[in-house]
Amino acid sequence: MPRRLPSPADPLVELTPEEAIVAVGLITMAADEAVEEIEADLLIDIVADFEIFEEYSDEDFDETLDKLSEAFDDPGIEAVCGSALAALSTHEEFAEIALIVAILIVAADGEVPESEQEYLNSLQVALGIPDDRAEEIVESLFSEEDDEEDEEDEGA
Predict the structure, then answer these.
(1) pLDDT, tens digit, for every residue of 45-98?
(2) How far apart are CA 127 and CA 96, in angstroms?
(3) Distance between CA 63 and CA 58 in Å, rounded?
(4) Alpha-carbon gap, residue 68 to 21, rounded angstroms
């Protein structure tokens, strides 16, 4: 994983916003000290829940993953990252979805070390998401989880 996120100035790989969101998920998995199997399975589960992917079939996801895998090999992960940022930079909603995907992947193993927090902060800035909006996103993601846990505890 690159130490800093590349600039979206010169995209080398043409990506749709959907492909860019999946790319951010894959790059986030690579930022982790070790890719957990739960993260790999979780990526497709996470993105499939968003409306923009409702038309995506398993074959579409496979094609997207194949395209990104080839691009990671050549021109490389930094080029894919820059291209993903470029594809998302003009779509606020898609940029937020990419950040949500990254947050959920990082949190999937139950630990968010400082290096992953720094990565998420860098990603947020690179996606052009203001701090207050990023805080709202985190609160909404994890307050819902806390509410569900409270309901489970009450039902036990």
Answers:
(1) 999 999 999 999 989 998 998 899 899 888 888 899 999 999 998 899 999 999
(2) 8
(3) 9
(4) 11
Which run of H or E residues covers position 136? Answer: helix 131-155
Helix axes 58-71, 77-88, angle to 10 degrees: 120
Distance CA 117, CA 145 (A): 19
Q: How far is CA 125 from CA 6, 35, 41, 79, 108, in A?
A: 12, 24, 27, 18, 22
98-126 b/e with 16+ CB inside 10 Å = b? Answer: bbbbbbbbbbbbeeeeeebeebbeebbeb
Q: Which residue has the tokens 């996470």?
A: 46
Tokens of 2: 């690159």
DSSP label at residue 51: G
Please report how the helices 17-31 and 92-107 are oriented relative to each other, as an axis angle in degrees rounded to 10.
30
Its pTM surpasses 0.70: yes
**Is there a contact between 80 and 24 (Cβ–Cβ < 8 Å)?**
no
